Amino acid sequence: MAGALLLGVWAIFSFLVGAYRFQAMFLVVLAVTCLQGLVLPALYSAGAPAGIVSAMLLFKDVGLAMLFLVALLSGAVLRLLSQSAAAQLLAMFTAYSLARGFLDFAFAGVDLVSYGSVGRQILFPFLAVCVGGALIHRHQDSGKRTIERGLAFVTWLVIGALVLHALTGPEWWAHNANIARFNLDIRGHTELAQLYDLGLAANAEMRDSVWSPFAFRIFGSFGDSLAFGQVAAVVFAYQLARNQERRRTALTVLLVGAAVLFSFSRSAWLAAWAMALVVMTGMRQWGRILFAASGVFILVSLTPGIVGFVDSTLAQFGNWRAGYEHAEGVVRFYSEGLWQAENLLGRGIGNRTIPESGYAWLLEQFGMPALLLLVAFFLVAVREIRSGGPHNHVPTVARGLCLASLLTLNFAEYPFAFTTYLLGWSLIGFALMQRQPATARHRKAPSTAALRA
Q1: Which of 21, 56, 74 is at the close of a domain?
Q2: How far apart are CA 45 and CA 114, in angstroms?
Q3: pTM (2 decimals)?
Q4: Which of 75-89, 211-225, 252-266 has the lowest mean pLDDT?
Q5: Nearest CA to 266 among 221, 319, 223, 202?
Q6: How far, in Å, CA of 267 to CA of 411, rounded?
Q7: What is the number of other CB atoms lying within 10 angstroms of the CB of residue 277?
Q8: What is the span of the domain harbouring residue 341?
Q9: By CB atoms within 10 Å of each CB, which of 63, 74, 205, 284 scores lowest?
Q10: Is residue 156 part of a domain?
Q11: Which residues touch 161 (CB under 8 Å, ≥6 apart)?
Q12: What was the pLDDT predicted at 290?
């Protein structure tokens, strides 16, 4: 009861603040999303009631829903849909997938909780894109400042994670913010391991080989090293783009790059590489591209841990039947999943035979239409998003994120994870709306002198 009341109060607050201060409320929701992985486990470890903590876990969902409602009422959603083919494709993907899932709920015995859980994942990208676009629906300059402030805030969180993990150890986390216990009791994750094993089991040897100063994979306030790595990859690309004009950001680029490295997420490394390549290519920094490629090659060649890690990763693809789920997911999706008749319209919610792969997650549950619509969205978005010009690097990063998403979907359904992709989807929505010409009522009237000329 207390949790429901708390959610109701938060919903009213989010809607009212969003209606009058939309951009400020967006920053609040972004902050809640990025901080909950530390704050909520800390509250639970301190003795906060489970019901209250569970309700607070939904703050980001309710806040985003209220922002979307405000955006819908303001006309921002309709404007984005009427002017962007990519947004239309994403809306079609969302509508089809939700309808396909509803058929499973209505006729195939899928329970409401399962349908609601998967439906939330499917609906999330569309909501976040629309909210990102609404940031500049009426005020271009203030919307641009808002998204830049959000990126700056997340950048400081990523850098702060380096400090936090350098100053703390497993004992501190176990006592003050026990994420393992939080995930078991509040999130219902049954695959509980001791906090001391969090991030240690798979990558301990590699961490030791690259002289990692941290006791386990870095995750900061995000509560998960995979989510942390993906978010850090986005801000790494953004800071790299800023560094082309402001050399003082070089230290920031190095620190955020270190955070991506110490997340030990191969998907985050791949995403950071892809976005950085798009950023430098867009600015025609061919010398920097060659220098960066050489640096990565030297790092891989001279660091035994990374060499062994890369070798073992590649070896998994040659022996994927031995239980290496990442490799198995990629190989089986392309060799089996795409060609099976059962996947034409999907097997239904919860019916998965291929592990890990984000593409297989879509294909097996919702069918080929969902897969094609999502891929088409990313490709059309890359074509639609134009360069933002000097001092506006968000469109370039958004374009890189679209391409990076096509790569990382091979390994997991990262774009459908709230904490992982709220910032990313918002950037894409912002860039899609920004590339559209202002409507007549928002254009600045020409001066009298201009008319006389």
Answers
A1: 74
A2: 28
A3: 0.87
A4: 211-225
A5: 202
A6: 7
A7: 17
A8: 75-170+200-436
A9: 284
A10: yes
A11: 218, 219, 220, 221, 222, 228, 259
A12: 59
